[in-house]
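Office hours follow-up: a student asked to see two folded examples consecutively, so here they are.
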Amino acid sequence: MKMNRRQILGIGAFLLGAPTLIVAKQHKGQAPLLISAASDADDKHWVLGFTLTAIGVTTVFKSVLPQRAHHIAVHEQRGFFVVVARRPGTWLSLGDLETGALFREIHIPADRHLFGHGVFAADGKHFYTTESDFDDIEGDSGRVVAWEVSGEGASANLIRVQEFPSYGVGPHELLLMPDNETLAIANGGIRTHPAHDRDNLNIDTMLPSLVYLNRKDGELLEQQFLPQEFHQASIRHMDVNASGRVIMGMQFEGEPFLEVPLVATHQRGEALQLLLAPPEVQVQMKQYVGSMRYAEDGRHFVASCPVGNLLTFWDSESGVMVSSIRARDGCGVCATETGFVFSTGTGRLAHIELATGLVTDHEEPQLQQLFWDNHLSVAEVGTKS
């Protein structure tokens, strides 16, 4: 896929002077390990680890999953990863970071379901997931669950030790803030129940919010709500930079013809900053943002729009959308030293170099037969202690 001259100049201008790099960070001369969930034409589900280099794609591992997954959280120091089931799944699968072998499956309580995301604490001793207490059909059913980490490699385990309210409904992605003590949670506002598969049960009364909690005791530190006119914009995915600026992507459940912000930023103690793309791009976003990731510079970011077959690039300081490229069903994104790797539901893996706008496809016939799920995770190989 090529970009036009205007797109190339637009991206090059806003990243002029940015560091010149390649696919993600290197560790001791080794390419970083990218990990993603995927499905195939036979409706089998997988977790794959692979590397991208100048000579192509190398599959490091491919392990079968019980059902479709969503996000993979990586614990580099202890040498394992956690595959989190897609909403409304009820399982976590632990895998060895070196071999990809899945060695432990953990099921959550019968009155809970997961939302596909988890994050490790910086000390590596705890893991956090978002869940729904779906029997709580009237109150704030969202939960944040703390797990204690034990062992390493193929002996690693997660022990469920504590849970807190998320102060909302439908908590989706959660992040560890730079202070390493605060969790940011995207309460999507959508009530779900496993008996109704993935149906949204409360569209008229949605109340999404961004919440900050103390990770040790669940104390509510701050909560930000969207304006009432945008209450059907479900906050789903986020990222945070070193200065604590959170970026958020929304999925709007209201009328498709309305002009609604789908991207926002937030700094603790300030108001939400709701962002709009130029009108001709805003309509192409199709009311749906998938993954959010900051670039290596911590200022610019990508918001993927798989329904609109679009990747959009933004400046978090000015709030301006700087450029966009077409990418059919493109959703998974991760930062590299020169831009982003992105994956698609059509089996595509590609890299965009932001300073030049150059898009390089990484073609590997076996991987092109897979439908990549929504997220890409990165692990620096060789960091196990």
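And the second, which I mentioned at the end of office hours:
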Amino acid sequence: MKEVLELDGSPLSLEDVAAVAVSSQRVSLSESAYRKIRTSRAIVEAVLSRGETAYGINTGFGKLSDVRIGAHQLQALQRNLVRSHACGIGEPLPEDEVRAMLLLRANVLAKGLSGVRSVVADTLVAMLNHAIHPVIPGRGSVGASGDLAPLAHLALALIGEGDVFFGGKRLPASGALTTAGIEPLTLAAKEGLALLNGTQAMAGVGALALGRAVRIAELFDLAGAMSLEALRGTPAAFDPRIHEARPHPGQIAAATHLRNLLADSEIRESHRHNDPRVQDAYCLRCMPQVHGAARSALAHVRGVIEIETGAATDNPLIFNDDGGEIISGGNFHGAPLALALDYAAIALSDLMSISERRIDRLINPDINEGLPAFLSKNPGVSSGLMIAHVAAAALLNESKVLSHPSSVDSVPTSGGKEDHVSMGMTGALKLRQVVSNAEHVLAIELICAAQGLEYRLPLNPARQVGAAADLVREIVPPLKEDRALADDIAQLAQKIREGRFDAWRGEKHG
């Protein structure tokens, strides 16, 4: 990771966003960004000096766009826009998501198409580097004209109003800015609108959730391989010839990963030539097809989000063509992200669904290949992992409900002027919850599969599966008698989120 991430408006990777949002990497603006910002601001100033009318610069907004605003009211226009739109609802977004918003908003301004002064971008960067995080309620955005309410709360802090989190405390923004030596902004023409129009809330929340999703999508291969070993399954269905006959990139990557994970297994060799079963159940045999489809879906969503991190999404945009032109459009509309975020939630829910079937197969004495009921040493007196499966089923149910696409809905707003909206922020918040659910279902499968492997000793599983099971055992001890499992599941999910199992992630594909 570079010491400082330099912004010039180019797309950022999910890893770049996480480095700043989660790991607090410092940020700066490039010299090219300053040049582009100054050029676009000069065009705005020229329009004002000529007395021309331009939307958002000297007019009202939305339904009020036909109202011309006098020069003496332009500062009040921008300030009132920020204040009036800061009406978010609910719990504040976590600080990492707020940092992602600050980063993406600064990078958008660095493209030099927004018409703001460089001090606006500088203030966003300074807040990031001083860890001043606006209090931004998570709900209230319909995703067009962008994430108005969340971004208004962000902008409110820039002008020294509202609250922020700073130094572990919630306090007024004005005090935090003063402590950090940052001058609150007095917004000039166009600047309030440039801060509010855009998709940076759904993109920031979505980018961080997707980064976690990509990690666990690959780790479901590991959990599935461990379950297959515990159930004495066969890797025959992962033969490369099968997957070359249906060459979806995600499917090929998942099959390759599974073959690598399952190499050199004593358990497999013990039943290679004397197994009466012809083939495994779908939850084992079709892992490359199901896991691979999810990988491909998430790869598509990654592409959409990473394009958006370097996209100009406010309105109007200022172009340095033929002496400068200001053009109104609709880049603030969140449809590209809204559809993609829904797709990601659907993909993760399908991964949870096949994982839940493997969990059931591990604990169900009717189908678990001779393992004890509920993986308990003393079934009847002990319930073993019975309710761990119930918890996974509950999380799966919630995720199925959350996977109903918010992007298929639209509620006209702003007096009918904004008559089709994306609901992309709803999609981002849903995805975040689905990812959390998936992390916990993954943890439950790893716990159950590791417990199943205890009953296959002294036979050893494949080397990589065994090493991963050892790591599970460092976090969650074997279940020798019933105990409360909530902490075990939570701790393992946290270690997954922190990257402790990343050594077993699969090959990447585009």
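Two things to take away from it. The beta strands are 4-7, 26-29, 89-92, 133-134, 137-139, 163-166, 169-172, 317-319, 325-327. The first strand starts at residue 4 and ends at 7.
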